[in-house]
Write a structure and sequence with these properties.
The chain is of the alpha+beta class. The chain folds into two domains: 23-137, Beta-grasp domain (Ubiquitin-like (UB roll), Roll); 140-154 and 170-268, Alpha-helical ferredoxin (Fumarate Reductase Iron-sulfur Protein, Chain B, domain 2). It is built from eleven helices and seven strands. It has helices at residues 23-35, 69-79, 114-117, 141-149, 172-176, 189-193, 195-199, 205-216, 224-231, 245-249, 256-268; strands spanning 37-45, 55-63, 99-102, 105-108, 121-125, 132-134, 137-138. The strands form two sheets. It has a five-stranded mixed β-sheet. The protein has a two-stranded antiparallel ribbon with strand order 6-7. A hairpin with a 2-residue loop joins strand 3 (99-102) and strand 4 (105-108). The chain is globular, with a radius of gyration of 23 Å. 31% of the residues are buried. It binds iron/sulfur cluster and FE2/S2 (inorganic) cluster (FES).
């Protein structure tokens, strides 16, 4: 930037109005709307302050090949019903905030394109097995407290920061054992798909168990016995019936069902 605050030559930007009410923005929206195909978006709505039960509200929404379900919900929120409660942040399948049931399956709304669903009607509902806050937003407190309970960090008696301690080196093979489980974004889709969680609300769940495996399988960690004690309880690892639905819905390629089976190997003594 130059002394007087201007951008250097070649880096100037066109002036745009930030106001969402700007007529050119509205004209652009109308132009996109008229040139697009439309779907019927059915949104499950529930306001605990005034509703006794959830109800579906239907909206006609324009979409393009690249429009995501989250874009469509936000289009409705901006232009048709400002009251819709929806949680999102990154819009790039990274923060794990926008999980919901889309046409019957747990998915990330920002990672699901309308065009992929191959349907003129898209139905969005809050995730199962989570307490409903409002509309599409659910409470994550229990999942996060379970995640915390399994101690999701490398436990060691020594530390790389102590003088004289060497760096804890790992081979590619060592990393391979747990790396897929480190991709978890804590979106909760696996817990939402889990039939055991539907019948046992105190079950640790696939998210927590997959993270327990992630640290148990890390050869830098010395907290294996502690973690195995935490998951070896009546509502712990043995409640999994291996339905496998957790692994089918994970948007990051984590396989919690496999992690649970590998963890059982440690508890049964055929893995060290
Ligand atoms: S394991 Fe997959 S589905 Fe489950 S919380 Fe992590 S990223 Fe989401
Ligand atoms: S908005 Fe962050 S994962 Fe969808």
């Amino acid at each position: 930037m130059t002394k007087d605050g201007a951008l250097p030559k070649g880096f100037e930007r066109p002036t745009v109005s930030a106001s969402p009410n700007d007529s050119s923005v509205q004209e652009k929206y109308e132009e996109v709307k008229s040139s697009s195909k439309t779907i019927t978006l059915r949104i499950s709505k529930f306001n605990p302050e005034k509703d006794l039960r959830t109800a579906f509200h239907a909206f006609t929404v324009p979409y393009q090949r690249w429009t995501t379900v989250l874009d469509a919900i936000l289009e409705v929120k901006s232009h048709q019903d400002h009251s819709i409660g929806v949680r999102y942040s990154c819009r790039q399948a990274t923060c794990g905030s926008c999980g919901m049931i889309i046409n019957g399956k747990p998915r990330l709304a920002c990672f699901t394109k309308i065009s992929e669903l191959d349907s003129d009607v898209v139905t969005v509902e809050p995730m199962n097995n989570f307490p409903l806050i409002r509309d599409l937003a659910v409470g994550f407190e229990r999942m996060f407290s379970t995640h915390k309970r399994i101690k999701p960090y490398v436990i060691r008696e020594d530390s790389e920061t102590n003088p004289g301690t060497k760096e804890f080196l790992q081979s590619p093979e060592d990393v391979e054992k747990y790396i897929q489980f480190a991709s978890c974004i804590k979106c909760g889709l696996c817990n939402s798909a889990c039939p055991t969680m539907t019948t046992d609300s105190t079950f640790i769940g696939p998210q927590g168990l997959a993270q327990a495996y992630r640290y148990v399988a890390d050869n830098r960690d010395q907290g294996k016995d502690e973690r195995l004690r935490i998951i070896d309880e009546p509502h712990g690892i043995w409640r999994c019936h291996f339905a496998g639905s957790c692994s089918q819905v994970c948007p990051k390629g984590v396989d919690p069902a496999m992690g649970i089976q590998l963890l059982r190997g440690y508890l049964l003594g055929y893995r060290k």
